[in-house]
Write the structure tokens for this entry.
Amino acid sequence: MTATLHVSERTTDTTDRRVLRRRLGPGRRIRFSFWIGPIVLLAVWAAGSATGLIKPAILTAPWDVVTAFQEQWTDHDLLGNILSSLARAALGLGLGVLAGAVLAVVSGLSRAGESLIDGPIQIKRSVPTLALIPLFIAWFGIGQEMKIVTIALISMVPIYVHTHNGLRGIDGRYAELAETIGIGRGEFVRHVVLPGALPGFLLGMRFAVTSSLLGLVVVEQYNATSGVGHMITLAEQYGQTDVIVVGLVIYGVFGYLADTAVRLTERRALAWRRTLDT
């Protein structure tokens, strides 16, 4: 009888783990499975180039891209261009995240704040940030300020929208419980509201990272003297398709690594949700 109970408990435990894994996604054993897609894509690219299905005039072969990368690294300060682009993207993204999070908190926790902030943000959502570049050039010139402001504004909106939704989506029963046990407003916001909005903030971060790179690609076409976009512009003028692909690959790696970092942060920061589901 005891052995039967132990077997039943193990079976139930195994079933619960399977249900939990289906609900939460892949387990730790396949944590790095998200590298499979890019590796398969690279293999298809290499196979297509080797067999002639992908013509060099359409897309440069991977080995030619590696050669061009080495030439740019040794002869044309590719590292300096990469660091310049990363600095623009990081500064613009940082300002956008800070502004979006602050505005979302003010709007999400105050009716007056929502009345003042949410409407203009929603209007901004309907106007593409890239369409505002001519106006930004008139305001800030064609230098570094315009580029950083564009990246900040384009990455601010997803942070605001998803963080605001996270704040507004918190169950009202938590507020009732806080009143019942006498928790102050400040403590309630710190320990319940902000952690509850964290999933929305991190989701907004994934969109913000992608948006910031989109803005970076565009603004570096405007009178840039350094950066990956500047390299691509020069390569376009001289018909260097392989160098253009090098720049595109670098942008892709930027985005993929940044998104992976956010996903790993999300997994660690939201580990408490797993314990709640068990």
